[in-house]
């Protein structure tokens, strides 16, 4: 199906990964993004082995390696120094060599993916207004007046996916009750709270947490302060309010946060979705947050979007029809994404063993 017309809506990590994955299979996919510039803000992420395996298949691993660093362990710490857990990165396989992550900033990951997409396949300033599913093809309309037709539309348009809500069933995001305050700071500004050997550190106070993820190549640390807060699409939080929310943490963490420039802090409400039963029609499908948005406690949102892209590209390449490919894609991806959605609602110190189906390995 290399001659199929494929359109991707959304130029974030999931959409860019889908374009790169399809390119590796000899399939052109045009990416349409509403923003005038492709960029990512926010936190660093831990890229896991199944994701790394796709990067190797696509021929981009060496470029990813240049802007990331391998991490062998993670720690969960109470106060400033009481280590509750120090362990290898958790895995859902019996292969212990998979117990690692490559730490990378989201912007570096997106930039690397975009660099592997031909320039004429990237279309900015295209805000989708309508998708019409005609059964054997879909019609996509944009606010700038452009209309295109495609054999397959891939919705990488996020948790509030307009495509999902227009073509499939409407699903509203579920607010967790928590806000995430994220910033990049220098390694020195972390005041020793961040590891010097690429260990993710999660400091906890009850069900509140502060993540310190070292980003070696940048000489920076990605900080994530997750605390209760009032829901807003774009919350506005003062330094005083932020400091009041972390009084249960040790004095060094409080000092780190106090020193942060609030203009550099990105605050977002943490939301996810209940399980979405339908991901696809015969010519439209969902990937990433549009299909299975999850909380950040397992650090798997970006990983799942990238792995969706890899599996979707493979099923398209091996199938006779788009409809067949989408059925195979859902069968492969739903079990693991649903598992991680459920696990991501657990706090890092919660016991998660009962959430794993017996003998289930992914």
Keywords:
362 residues; alpha/beta; five-stranded parallel sheet; 10 helices; 28% strand; globular; disordered C terminus
* Alpha carbon gyration radius: 20 Å
* Helix segment tally: 10
Query: Low-confidence runs (pLDDT<50, min 5 residues)?
Result: 351-362
* Class computed from helices, strands and strand pairing: alpha/beta
Q: Please bin the fraction of helical residues.
A: 25-40%
> Separation of termini?
28 Å
Number of strands: 18
Mean of all residue-level pLDDT scores: 92
Strand order of the largest sheet: 6-5-14-15-16-13-17
Biggest sheet statistics: 7 strands, mixed
Order of helices and strands: EHEEHHEEEEHEEEEEHEEEEHHEEHHH
Shape: globular
Structure overview:
By secondary structure, the chain is of the alpha/beta class. Helices cover 28% and strands 28% of the residues. The protein has ten helices and 18 strands.
